Amino acid sequence: MHPKNTRANLPGHKLPDRASGGKTGVIVVDVQGDFTTWKNGSLAVGGADEAYVKKVEATTKALSREGLAILGAQDWHPVDHVSFFTNHEGKKPFETIQIHDRTQILWPPHCIRGTENARVLVDNNLFLAIVKKGQDPRYDSYSAFQDDGGVRTEMDEVLKRNMVQKVVVYGLATDYCVKATAMDAADAGYRVVVVEDLCRGVAPGTTQKALEEMKAKGILVLNTMDLKKIREF
Ligand code: VGL
Ligand code: ZN
User: Fold this and answer.
1) pLDDT at position 21, please?
2) Pocket lining: 173 vs ligand 1, CB cutoff 6 Å
3) Which of 73, 90, 94, 117 has the most CB atoms lying inside 10 A of its own CB?
4) What CATH number is associated with residue 169?
């Protein structure tokens, strides 16, 4: 058989990626008003402007049309959440504390459940499910798979129910929730792809470090969306 006559190369057919039959999923991480400059978010990430969000939405729509399983993650905190500096007397934003034997960064209050800037800004109709995280006031949850107390979300179940074996991860922020979600996906046994130009990071240093750590874990980091490369990975 000629090597060109395989799966995605056959015209007019949408075949499952790889011989395994497993599907490819997408996790759009925390594209919410509070993380954007567009909506004057309380924890706005540099470069997360309207054009960025529109690009994420257009790409997600295209992947949905290609048959990928689209999932979202949504930071969804109660007002008394441990990660808010306002809940620690005498603390300022971005200071850290030691809690449960971990370093907790103290963020400005953000993504308070039920508020306008906690909404997912990408067309909600695209998602099979939007997994909420960070709801326990005692624990932070950068990962969409589990919180810092080790309590799992429904993300893994939803992916398995949809026969997903490979996940494409992008969104906000590269150095926190995108990284933690991608690393946990890899730990859960998924093949993982991160698309760099569909992510924005809180700070350059931690963003570069996050990209290196993800690559070292075997995660494929693409500069731009490339469905052919994703299908071949
Ligand atoms: C995030 C800090 C606090 C994120 C969420 O989505 O990356 N960062 N909560
Ligand atoms: Zn948060």
Assistant:
1) 67
2) yes
3) 73
4) 3.40.50.850
Residue 63's domain comprises 21-78+114-232
Residue type, 114: G
131 in any annotated domain: yes
What does the pLDDT read at residue 165?
97
Longest dimension (CA), the chain: 70
Q: Which two tokens stand for residue 44?
A: 């706005």
> For the chain, first and last CA: distance in Å?
21
Protein residue whose Cα sits closest to atom 4 of ligand 1 = 177
pTM listed for this prediction = 0.92
Count of domains observed in the chain: 1
Question: Which of the residues 23, 133, 166, 179 is marked catalytic?
Answer: 133
Two tokens at 80?
Answer: 């008394």
Euclidean distance between CA atoms 226 and 55, whole angstroms? 14
- Answer whether residue 105 is part of any domain: no
Give the mean pLDDT per block of 10 residues along the chain (233 residues). 44 48 94 98 98 98 98 98 98 96 97 98 98 98 98 98 98 98 98 98 98 98 97 96
Q: Is residue 103 part of a domain?
A: no
- At residue 6, the pLDDT reads 47
Segments of the chain assigned E as strands: 23-29, 69-75, 96-99, 102-105, 129-133, 164-171, 191-195, 220-222
Q: Does residue 101 lie in a domain region?
A: no
Calculate the alpha carbon distances from 219 to 164, 169, 179 in Å: 16, 10, 10
In sequence order, the 6+-apart residues with CB closer than 8 A to the CB of 89 are none
Catalytic residue at 133?
Answer: yes
